[in-house]
Amino acid sequence: MPPSRPSEQPAPAPASAPAPASATQPSGVSDALAQALAAAQSRYRQRYPQSAHLHAQAQRHLPGGSTRSAIHYTPFPLTWQQGRDQWLFDVDGHRYLDLLGEYSAGLYGHSDPRIRAAIHRAVDDGLVLGGPNRYEAHLAEAVCARFPSIELVRFTNSGTEANLMALATARAVTGRRAVLVFEGGYHGGVFNFRSGHGRLNLDLDWRVGEYNALERTRALLREEGGELAAVLVEPLQGGGCIPAETGFLCLLREECTRQGIVLIFDEVMTSRLSPGGLQGLLELRPDLTTLGKYLGGGASFGAFGGRRELMQRFDAARPDAFEHAGTFNNNVISMAAGLAGLTEVCTAQALARLNGAGDALRERLNAIAARHRAALVATGRGSLIGLHAAGLPARGGAGASDVAAEQVARAGALLHLDMLERGFYIGRRGYLALSLPVSAADLERFALAVEAFLIEYGALLPTPAPVSGASPP
Fold first, then answer.
1. pLDDT mean by block of 10 residues, the chain; 473 residues
2. ω into residue 462 within 30 of 0, thus cis?
3. Residue-range domain boundaries for the chain
4. Does the annotation count 124 as an active-site position?
5. Which end of the chain has fewer CB atoms at under 10 Å, N or C?
6. φ, ψ for residue 464 (rounded to 5)?
7. Residue 332 belongs to what H/E stretch?
8. Is 203 a catalytic residue?
9. Is 293 designated active site?
10. Which of 266, 287, 418, 442 is catalytic?
């Protein structure tokens, strides 16, 4: 009998990850997985009629029914009515423990009183003021105090914009055109390298390397370094929550310094992993850092900053100043909410507690999967977690057949729908970003829900095929 699924039930990466491989299943198990997913989708349609209705209405004027590709999933995405603290409520009246955390932008939860008070004050004082306001310089001071590599900073409206401006800066100051990125990387809607090149990627001179491949990356930099303006890298890849090896990042720092390449750390997501971001934990200093997500306190936000000699070029009083416009770069809501969040809510103690809880949850989930001999792996660092419902994926999709990829997608979709049915909201791709209001009891309930999923469906999950010289997962 399947476990009960009450709608009101809220509920460190492995030392050596399994080697990338194709996923395999006997045909009978594959058919059973497809049937289990179809049954879950049928229950979903019956459970959420109001979300289905609103999605159909939205499709009249929004392609696909929304304005964000990441939030779409089959059969249709839930429509949210309300958020409070760590909880979400859909339009059909169900409550969920929010473990997606707005893809890491929701670090503070949905209703922190200090941030709400700051927004109210800013709104009362007037919107779209058309000049400097009393918040932005203080927010810039707080950002620079947290990140020693950021001596000067500029604000934008998103992490995508921040990466765009950082790349433009590197190309302008070096006079070079090429940019090295890595397979599996994501730096915004027009900088997507998760499955080859995104079709809407900006047409820059991209050189795509292999993440964590130290010697191949060294050879590439030695061969092509003279053409590179920048190396853009996530110190933990958001797609799958795959941490960079410290030696890999140290190699990038060493070679960029040697060859005059601007090293850019995309910490749009990972800046939450310590008061100084992941670079602070690793004691590495990039030339430029890009930020976003939670640093706007729940409002739209992005930032790029770094070495003084690079960022001073944006001083508009200089005759050779770089231009950087943006009507809402310093909008009062983002500035006020961001300042309150960074100075009143996001303390070193709060981050240490949350990231410690994330590490403990990851270890717990991997132990549960091992105990049930299930092909599920939790990766990541601190409060950022990737759940892989068929073992670790092949790097860049290499080595996976179309059939295997389809089975991996089905496994992930089944996990996602099952967690919704049990009262937990995670990303369709298995992504979790914990928020500060989430409690240890909440995370224990989630771990038990994952265990219940594995008891019911673990035998149906695709198993990575053996790879020569690899240890089994």
1. 38 37 64 96 98 98 95 97 98 98 98 98 96 97 97 98 98 98 96 86 96 97 97 95 97 98 98 97 97 97 98 97 96 98 98 98 98 96 96 50 79 98 97 98 98 97 54 30
2. no
3. 23-107+349-464, 113-345
4. no
5. N
6. -55, 135
7. helix 332-340
8. no
9. yes
10. 266
